[in-house]
Write a structure and sequence with these properties.
Layout lengths: L3 E6 L2 H13 L5 E5 L5 E3 L2 E3 L1 H10 L17 H8 L10 H15 L4 H11 L5 E4 L6 E6 L2 E4 H7 L6 E7 L8 H8 L3 E6 L4 H10 L1 H8 L5 E4 L2 E2 L2 E2 L4 H7 L6 H8 L5 E5 L6 H6 L3 E5 L6 H17 L2
Parallel strand pairs: 1-2, 1-9, 2-5, 9-10, 10-13, 13-14
Antiparallel strand pairs: 3-4, 6-7, 6-8, 11-12
Helix pairs in contact: 1-2, 1-13, 4-5
Length: 315
C-alpha cells in the first residue's frame, strides 16, 4: 500500500495499534480518528479520555502499567481535593491536569476540539494526525438494570458493575465528522480503513454511528478490516466481554465478526482463536490469524504490518 490509512480507535487497545501504525507509516499517510462519546466535563474541565490515551501513547508518554494516563504521574492535586472534601471518583493526575486546563483555555477562546487536539499533539511532538470523530458533542449513555447512567458514571464511578442493557449516543444523528475525519474519508489516496481492537459497543460504535461515516462504510470502495479485541473469549482490556455477554452476544472473535457484519470486509483474530477462522469466513468475511496481543512497541508494529498486508490483499 502506498496511499493513506484511516484508523478508528478508542482507548488502550486502539491506542496500541495506532502506535504500531504510526511506527510503520510515514507522517501524512495515517489519520487516527478517535471516539469522543466518552468525553465529559469534570471539575469545569473538558475531559477527552480516548483522545488523551491515543495522544499520550503516540507521544511515548502513556503509563506502561495501565495503558492510560501519563507515565510518572503524581497526585498532589487530587490529594488536596480530597483534603477539602471534594469528589475524587474520577482522578486527574497532576501531569494529565495540564492537558485538560489547556484544552479548556483553547475551547473558551473559540477553538474547536480538532484545533485543540492539533495544538496539544503538536506540543507533544506527534507527527501523525490525531482527530476527534466530531467537533460536536456526542455523549454515550448506558441503559442498565439500575437505570440510565452517563458513561463515565457507569465506567469509572460504578466500575461497570450494573448490567448493561443497551447503549445510545446522544445527538449522533445530527453530528458531522470532524474536518480531519471528513478529509480522510474523502481522500482519493485512501487505501484502507482499520478498525482498531477497541470496544465495539462504546468506542467504535459512536464513530460508525455518525451518519456520514455510516454512509461511507456502506458505499465503501476500499477494504475495512478490524482487529478483534476478544482473545480466547476474553477482552484484553476493559469490559467488552462483559458487555457482550450481557447483550446476548457470543463472547468470542466470532461474536465480534457477527457484531460488525457487513460493515467490515475482514477480521484479524489471535492465534489462540485460529479454529474460529472457518466459521468467520463462512459468514462471507475474510479472516486472518496473527499474534494480536500487543505487549510492547515491537508487537504493535508487527500487528500493524500484518493488518495492513491483510487489507492490501482484500483490495
Amino acid at each position: 500500500m502506498t496511499g493513506t490509512i484511516l484508523a478508528l480507535a478508542g482507548g488502550v487497545g486502539g491506542a496500541k495499534l495506532a502506535r504500531g501504525l504510526a511506527g510503520v507509516l510515514d507522517p501524512g499517510r495515517l489519520t487516527v480518528a478517535v471516539n469522543t462519546g466518552d468525553d465529559f466535563e469534570h471539575m469545569g474541565l473538558p475531559i477527552s479520555p480516548d483522545l488523551d490515551t491515543v495522544m499520550y501513547t503516540l507521544a511515548g508518554r502513556a503509563n506502561p502499567d495501565t495503558g492510560w494516563g501519563v507515565a510518572g504521574e503524581t497526585w498532589s492535586f487530587m490529594e488536596a481535593v480530597e483534603d477539602l472534601g471534594g469528589d475524587t471518583w474520577f482522578r486527574l493526575g497532576d501531569r494529565d491536569l495540564a492537558t485538560h486546563v489547556l484544552r479548556r483555555r483553547m475551547l473558551d477562546r473559540g477553538k474547536t476540539l480538532s484545533e485543540a487536539t492539533d495544538a496539544l499533539a503538536g506540543a507533544l511532538g506527534i507527527r501523525h494526525r490525531i482527530v476527534p470523530m466530531s467537533d460536536r458533542p456526542v455523549r454515550t449513555v448506558v441503559e442498565t438494570d439500575e437505570g440510565t447512567l452517563p458513561f463515565q458514571d457507569y465506567f469509572v464511578r460504578r466500575r461497570c458493575e450494573p448490567r448493561s442493557l443497551t447503549f445510545r449516543f446522544e445527538n449522533i444523528d445530527s453530528v458531522d465528522p470532524s474536518p480531519g475525519l471528513a478529509a480522510a474519508l474523502a481522500d482519493p489516496e485512501l487505501d484502507a480503513v482499520v478498525v482498531c481492537p477497541s470496544n465495539p459497543y462504546v468506542s467504535v460504535a459512536p464513530i460508525l454511528g455518525i451518519p456520514a461515516v455510516a454512509g461511507f462504510i456502506e458505499a465503501r470502495k476500499v477494504p475495512v478490516v478490524a482487529v478483534s479485541p476478544i482473545v480466547g473469549g476474553r477482552a484484553i482490556k476493559g469490559p467488552a466481554a462483559k458487555m457482550m455477554a450481557e447483550l446476548g452476544a457470543e463472547t468470542s472473535a466470532l461474536g465480534i465478526a457477527t457484531h460488525y457484519g457487513a460493515r467490515i470486509d475482514g477480521l484479524v483474530i489471535d492465534e489462540v482463536d485460529a479454529a474460529l477462522a472457518p466459521d468467520i469466513e463462512a459468514s462471507g468475511m475474510a479472516a486472518h490469524v496473527a499474534r494480536t496481543v500487543m505487549r510492547n512497541e515491537e508487537d504493535s508494529r508487527d500487528l500493524a504490518l500484518e493488518t495492513l498486508a491483510f487489507a492490501a490483499g482484500l483490495r
